[in-house]
Q: What sequence folds into this?
């Protein structure tokens, strides 16, 4: 004779109604917190002059709606109109620790790495810091990470140089120079003695 089987009732599944109302998942809370910190840093950097996070944001905001930022011709035009490189001789202005590297360096010749030097690629030099920041912002949109360096001289005053680097190897600096030339910049490579 067949026995009857008892079927146990399953406990009801937890529904969303049973969860605490208004609880936020920890992952979402962490994403919101990190996003808020990053936005705060960007806004603070845009409000203050300096080389920190968001320093190029002010130049981007000022240029909204004025002209297309991503245009190579605009970069070349900015350098042609505002750059001061054609106004003075770099050999007189730069200190003795910096030397301009010639364009015709041999490619195939193996060279010994000089650990006492680092290399910078200077994109342009401006009298106004706003022009330097505008170029930095445009170069950032092209994928270049650059810095603005203020240089004051008794004879010529203050200039704001837009530079890429430092590079430990001269070939890496020359590669960066060639990439900058493709976006309309006339860069120069400098070697600088490392600080001890």
A:
């Amino acid at each position: 004779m067949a026995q009857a089987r008892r079927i146990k009732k399953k406990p009801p599944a937890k529904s969303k109604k049973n969860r605490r109302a208004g609880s936020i998942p920890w992952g979402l809370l962490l994403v919101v917190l990190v996003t808020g910190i990053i936005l705060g840093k960007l806004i603070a950097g845009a409000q203050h002059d300096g080389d920190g996070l968001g320093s190029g944001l002010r130049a981007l905001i000022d240029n909204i709606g004025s002209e297309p930022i991503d245009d190579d011709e605009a970069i070349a035009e900015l350098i042609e109109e505002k750059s001061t490189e054609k106004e003075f001789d770099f050999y007189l202005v730069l200190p003795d620790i910096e030397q301009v590297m010639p364009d015709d360096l041999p490619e195939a010749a193996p060279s010994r790495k000089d650990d006492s030097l680092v290399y910078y690629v200077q994109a342009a030099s401006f009298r106004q810091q706003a022009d330097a920041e505008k170029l930095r912002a445009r170069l950032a949109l092209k994928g270049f990470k650059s810095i603005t360096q203020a240089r004051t001289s008794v004879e010529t005053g203050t200039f704001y140089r837009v530079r890429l680097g430092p590079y430990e190897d001269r070939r890496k600096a020359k590669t960066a120079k060639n990439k900058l030339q493709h976006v309309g910049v006339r860069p120069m490579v400098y070697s600088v003695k490392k600080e001890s």
Q: What stands out?
A: The mean pLDDT is 77.
